[in-house]
Amino acid sequence: MPHLTPLEKAASGALASAFANTLVYPLDLSKTIIQTQVKKRDPSAQAMAMGRSVSTSSEHLWEQSQRGNELKYKSALDVLHKIYKKKGVLGWYHGLLSSIVGTTAQNFSYFYWYTIVRRVFARLTSKNASHKHSTATELFLGALAAAISQLFTMPIGVVTTQQQTDKHRRSLYQLIKEVYVHDGIKGFWKGLNVSLVLCINPSITYGSFERLRQILYNDKQYLGPLESFSIGMLAKSLATIATQPLIVSKAMLQKKHHPAPKDGKAEAAVDEGDEIKFDSFTHALEHLWKTEKFHGLYKGIGPQLLKGVIVQGLLFMFKDQLDMLFLLALKSLQKRRRSLVKA
After folding, report:
1. Where would I find the Solcar repeats (predicted)?
2. Number of domains comprising the chain
3. What is the pTM of this model?
4. What is the span of the domain harbouring residue 77?
């Protein structure tokens, strides 16, 4: 069976991604909101401060402060419920367009570079016809493709996260302008360091998928829908569990920043953690560990896993079917060309 070109592979991957992400977008929105909410203060430090102060008024002030340090949302369902009460079902799809554009572009870029990287590597190792990629090789090739892809698609991810966490529902143009005014051109690559580290996520996902394909299905080129779906879910689960703290820190870095009012008024309008701006992903991870421990590092793991495994399972399922449709279309075009030439 003929092989698809890198562009055709990228197109099928991008289309599959768009379908899959549209189906589960509310989960994506809820997990982003959960991951970007942070506590302002370190509870242990507050406890020490309380121990030094024994007056009733001090205790009362501490209790008020502690209540203000509670997270606004308890779970993904809580997020969706509160959004529904305020904005209805349409609120669940806030930022959908930019998210779909972003994921489509990211997956197009990833599959394009992944196909090229694998083909280049295959040519370099073509002397050994029986050679099969090891797990380490698959992971390396996936990480390399993801790193190249990130350099091109990072700005889309930054703007998408900003839109999902923006309380004022600004337009894409306004958000892009604001990012540029505040941080310059480098603001569109905010979180690049952690994104490059996170290249191990798609690397683990696609590397595991290819390895499982080899082990379970003897490296069959095109899997059935259920075969692709099940392997895709398993591969994504492994990747998500391994990289969740980095995913959370990246979301916190790219979150829309709402600074607290300088005059101290209208503090209630600013949610907890909104005035905290993180300089790096290590800063974000350190803050999470101090304020929430393991729960903070793995916050949103439920919707992240659910969304991730469903999207990845559907993506692989759709992609293999789209690949076959592309091949059938190409065969049909080739036959038509031959018939026209003969005529």
Report:
1. 4-120, 133-215, 223-325
2. 1
3. 0.57
4. 21-37+61-94+300-342
Residue identified by tokens 């974000």 is 284
| Res 129 pLDDT > 60 | no
Closest CA to 240 of 218, 208, 287: 208
pLDDT at 54 over 50: no
In a domain, 111, yes or no: no
Average pLDDT over residues 242-264: 68
Among 276, 274, 277, 278, residue whose Cα is nearest residue 258? 274
Token digits for 328? 């059938």
Q: Report pLDDT digits (tens) over 260-309.
A: 545 444 444 445 445 567 777 778 888 888 887 887 788 878 877 887 77
How far out from the chain centre does Cα 330 lie?
A: 33
Q: Is position 69 within any domain?
A: yes
